Amino acid sequence: MSDSNLWNIDPIQFVGTEKLEQGLGFRYYDADRVVAGKTMKDWMRFGVAYWHTFDQRLVDPFGEGTATRPFDSYTDPIDLALAKVDYAFEFYQKLGVEYFCFHDRDLAPEGDTLRETNKILDRVIDRIEERQKETGIKLLWNTSSLFTNRRFVSGAGTSPFAEVYAYAGAQLKHSLEIAKRLGAENYVFWGGREGYENLWNTDLKREQDHIARLFHMCVDYAKEIGLDAQFLIEPKPKEPTSHQYDFDAATTIAFLQTYDLDKHFKLNLEGNHANLAGHTYQHEIRVAREAGMLGSLDANQGDKLIGWDIDEFPSDIYETTAVMWEILAAGGIGPHGGLNFDAKPRRTSFTAEDLFRAHVVGMDTYAAGLLVAAKLHEDGYIENLVADRYSSFDSGIGKTVEDGTATLASLEEHALDIPQADLVAATKSDHLECVKATLNNYIFDTLGRA
Question: Is the dihedral of CA 22, 24, 25, 26 positive or negative?
Fold first, then answer.
């Protein structure tokens, strides 16, 4: 497998920062370089998304696909599915990533019945298992596509149609068996159509009750078959539905707590989804991290001028610095999580080589963010900033609030005779412009020394 050259591309190497133009080489990502006590590859655990990388034809609502791929000569759907596995594993090796992710329907065409579909899918899983043993490439996570087929027009776990709900459960069962077989470190549930278009014909509580029951069935079956993968839910606020039940991190955590699922699930968060919810990526990660619910991350970004999910490869160093700062603060992603590139090249970047180039950009941008975030943590700049801002709660009346001894009466006794001028004097300027400029300075200085 390692000697093949299906892509006609040489393995991607670390080349350093001498040249400014980004090519087919890493400027910042040096897999074995130790940063803040771990290697770069261990901090980020990069994964390749099967669906975007090998299935996406770069279509958009206004035009047909532009992608050209080296496996385009295959005409039989099953032959193509089997060939893609070989192309995929060579891609992982040449890019130097150790993980991949997939939906079940990314891998193989469907048959007329689920029994037939499972039989076709298992042929492809056989090939994947062989390639895993040959290469050591691991499955970061897999999932079920419970949204593409027209049967899921009104959802899967929230479908108002019991036959569709049953089919979704059966599909999940086989998908969990595949996770067990391939050694998945996580299993993701993305509710692509688990929401509503119109409240007038929707029983909101009943739908959420139903999908919670489906999740509990999955927990029970995982225990039955000995699958110890971390279960993850991936929030998204809308698109394709008007409103999805896993709107954002906070909403999803509340759902999990409501249905006694929080001890079984964590979150898989995506940058573009955060933007669609009106949040920054850092916000979503912070919410999950501080709740102890950070599971894994999908590495992409959105265009702030386009109000839909475009799954662009990450190139925003400010955002990747913020993401990696949160990851370092958490001590890592997971412990089973990684950075999966749920991203596709732009429609005008249509060559096979562009698939490699786009991943190189994403990996380099995250590696650069790691370097900056590590320097920020080393200096304690953010930690000191936050500690100083809340320092009035470390002693006096503030400390009684934090240690739980304060009452409304004690707060009143303290506050009744404080002059207004003293209250104003007790506040401090945040110097926000200087904080933002300092973050810029860390980026420029750290990468200038890389």
Answer: positive
Task: Give the separation between CA 108 and CA 112, rounded to whole angstroms.
Answer: 13
How do 265-270 and 339-341 pair as beta strands?
A: unpaired
**Is the pTM value of this prediction over 0.85?**
yes
Tell me which long-range contacts 237-240 makes (C-beta under 8 A, separation of at least 24). Answer: 237/273, 237/276, 237/277, 237/278, 238/195, 238/276, 239/276, 239/308, 239/309, 240/147, 240/192, 240/193
User: What pLDDT, on the 0 to 100 scale, is given for residue 3?
Assistant: 66
Q: What would the pLDDT profile of 57-89 be if each residue is shown by its tens digit?
A: 999 989 999 999 999 999 999 999 999 999 999
Nearest CA to 296 out of 47, 31, 33, 107 is that of 47
Catalytic residue list: 103, 106
Beta strands in 197-271 (DSSP E): 230-233, 243-244, 265-270
Mean per-residue pLDDT, 118-134: 98
Tell me the C-alpha distance between 309 and 170, whole Å.
29
Residues 416 and 138: their CA atoms lie apart, in Å, by 63
CA angle, 285 then 286 then 288, to 5° = 65
Residue 356 pLDDT level (bands cut at 50, 70, 90) = very high
The DSSP symbol for 199 reads G
In angstroms, how far is the first alpha carbon of the chain from the final one? Answer: 34
Name the 3-class secondary structure at 296.
strand
